[in-house]
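Q: what sequence does this backbone want?
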């Protein structure tokens, strides 16, 4: 796999919850860190994502905001 995004983290799928059109996929990256992604149900099917599958969390963001009270 070649991809331009530099923030990619390998982990294991620990949960897949499909909704009407969108699924929430939780990926355990280790050390207690879990990332949740919202993707289409079609993408879940095409990637054959199931609990226990290896997967990458690829994070591409143009902005990161920080706030305080």
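A:
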């Amino acid at each position: 796999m070649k991809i331009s995004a530099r923030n990619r983290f390998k982990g294991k799928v620990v949960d897949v919850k499909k909704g009407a059109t969108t699924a929430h996929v939780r990926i355990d990256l280790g050390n207690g860190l879990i990332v949740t992604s919202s993707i289409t149900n079609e993408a879940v099917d095409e990637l054959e994502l199931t609990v226990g599958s290896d997967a990458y969390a690829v994070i591409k963001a143009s902005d990161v905001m920080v706030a305080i009270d």
